[in-house]
Amino acid sequence: MELLCPAGALPALKAAIDNGADAVYIGLKDDTNARHFAGLNFSGPRLREAVDYAHRGGRKVHVAINTFAQADHAGRWGQAVDVAVEAGADALIVADLGVLADLHRRYPQQEVHLSVQASATNAAAIRFYHERFGIKRVVLPRVLALKQVAQLAQSSPVALEVFAFGSLCIMAEGRCYLSSYLTGESPNTVGACSPARFVDWREDGEVLESRLNGVVIDRFAKGESAGYPTLCKGRYRVDGQLFHTFEEPTSLNTIEVLPQLMAMGIVSVKIEGRQRSPAYVAAVTKVWRNAIDRCRRDSSSFAPLATESAALDHVAEGYQTTLGAYHRAWQ
Amino acid sequence: MQLTLGPVLYYWPRATAMAFYEAVASSAIDRVYLGETVCTKRRELTVQDYLRLADELQQAGKEVVLSTLALISDRAELDQLEPLLTSGVLIEANDLGVVQRCHELGRPFVAGPALNVYNIDTLQVLLESGMVRWVPPVELPRRQLALLLSQAEERGLRQRFEVELFGWGYLPLAYSARCFTARSENRPKDRCEKCCINYPQGRVVTAQDGTDLLRLNGIQTQSAKRANLLPELDSWRGAIDGVRLSLSEPDTTIIAAAAAQRQTPSAWPLTDDECNGYWLGEAGMQRLELA
């Protein structure tokens, strides 16, 4: 089982490699990837340096080109493919059918993984991508229960990768337009959800209010911890009742089901957080490296250590974690 | 331009749905999409009911398409679709798994609005898989649509598919493993008791400043506002082959109004609870003047 860690810049990539990541995934400095944030991502010499650093240690680099090519500048996705292939990426992570077709035509030998943004949640969908584009791996959306993952692991013609830890997308990835409904920009179209340039904080006496393009996402009393206004983590009213209508601010953590994931033959566990700091990447990578190694030695007695759980909770959104959709009761 | 009726996205009691489709049969609609696209637990109408309705509507002179689930999470859900896929009636695919099954069966399909199609190469992949009609994603602006259609023309592909626009109704915006209607009643999904039947137009989600924002419809999240592109209809004559109405009430009044608009275009100002932002390349929730 591969440990796949995120990097938004070179220091994070080094932190991942130095703490035991088997592979690192990164994006290019434009809207061709789903973490298109200011000051983040790789281009030119930095990209080359990143690949060299990983390869020197015998590790791999995956490049995410996983937004949907927009008709008025679709050429940019083809250029991103060229850049990533030339830089020596071990795998490209792609979602768009047009980009996949172009990539398969021009670089048939390049290893391709189907991005979570493609939202392939069943065996027939996986067959679709496998038959046409020869994908080697599918990153599963965070909407499946553990039993459903196990079922897919038996029927899928390609290897499966799952999200193990990090921010929790509660909608099927690549099939959520909530962000563009409020702001005009969505992960599909510009590679960002609830983009920072639409965020506005207002303080009114004792109340701190977060807004996204003018819409109130949440209000916090003094002393309450106020998270980034990702719109599906806000508090809204339904028939007068105020609550986290979609989800509380929380992170996904699957460490307790690691033995099951291993038994199913999941080839890779992915840590979310290309937008996070090198310190986050280092801390999470270290915990998961140890956990995977311990589980590999003896999966029957595996349980996360208290120190590991505490370390993960410490860097989690809202300082709490959940098994998410993997645990049926969450749904 | 064809007037079409999208699949009913809500969970209506059987008697309501049956009476509704009886009214639809004698309405001005040209094409009807039938079927459950949101949740497999909703069984007020069975597969047999849908196939019988398809037959009756065809006899009433309507073209019929069977719509399928947007989020297919396991083998059982995939298997449940087989009787529809092999019925001989045209299928609307909202998941690439259904596209694949249609391709394997050698059947044509309509690419539904839940498929991510933003560029001409993607359209070409779907055409090669058997697509005969395309319903663009609801967030696609008219500028991008016009560009895509001209690119299709250049590649000599435009004659191979029809285009149908989601023109009126609450916008489907997201799908999740979690049932938000059940959550809003504090129930887990496995013990939902199909409570969505109590919300025939979904449940409105209101921001803390009083803005109506979204609409909970089981595992689907919709816009609180209704998209309305019908005032624009006339300027797209020739470029678009059909316009879809997605009804939230079992009332066919809007069908007659849309038919009148098709016949004699007239000014149709949007109301406060309507939006057209996506179409104009802005935030979907916005209501803008048409230029």
What would you say this structure looks like, in words?
The complex is a heterodimer of chains A (331) and B (291). Chain A is an alpha/beta fold and 331 residues long. In chain A, 34% of the residues lie in helices and 23% in strands. Chain A has helices at 10-18, 44-56, 75-86, 97-106, 123-133, 146-155, 178-183, 187-190, 258-264, 278-297, 306-315, and strands at residues 2-6, 23-27, 60-65, 91-94, 112-114, 137-139, 159-167, 171-176, 199-204, 207-212, 215-220, 235-238, 241-244, 251-253, 268-271, 321-322. Chain A has an 8-stranded parallel barrel with strand order 1-2-3-4-5-6-7-15, surrounded by 6 helices. In chain A, α1 (10-18) runs parallel beside α10. The longest helix of chain A is centred in the C-terminal third of the chain and has 20 residues, at 278-297. The two termini of chain A are 27 Å apart. The model of chain A has no long low-confidence stretch (mean pLDDT 94). Chain B has helices at residues 14-25, 47-59, 75-80, 82-85, 96-105, 120-129, 142-154, 180-184, 253-263; strands at residues 2-5, 31-34, 63-67, 90-93, 109-111, 131-134, 162-176, 203-206, 212-217, 220-228, 242-245, 274-275. Chain B has an 8-stranded parallel beta barrel, surrounded by 4 helices. Classes of the chains: A alpha/beta (331), B alpha/beta (291). The interface between A and B is large, with 72 and 70 residues. β12 of chain A pairs antiparallel with β8 (203-206) of chain B, so a sheet runs across the interface.
**β-strand amount of chain A:** 15-25%
- Biggest sheet strand line-up of chain A: 1-2-3-4-5-6-7-15
Task: Identify low-pLDDT runs of chain B.
Answer: none
Largest interface chains and counts: A-B, 72 and 70 residues
Order of helices and strands of chain A: EHEHEHEHEHEHEEHHEEEEEEHEHHE
Report strand % of chain B.
15-25%
Biggest beta-sheet profile of chain A: 8 strands, parallel, barrel
C-alpha Rg of chain A, in Å?
20 Å
| Measured distance between first and last alpha carbons of chain B | 22 Å
Count of DSSP-assigned helices of chain A: 11
The Cα radius of gyration of chain B reads 18 Å
Mean pLDDT level of chain A: 94
Beta strands of chain A, count? 16
H/I helix tally of chain B: 9
What would you call the shape of chain B?
globular
How many strands in all of chain B?
12
Question: Helix coverage percent of residues of chain B?
Answer: 25-40%
Provide the low-confidence segments of chain A as ranges: none
Distance between the termini of chain A: 27 Å
- What global shape of chain A is seen? globular
| Derived structural class of chain A | alpha/beta
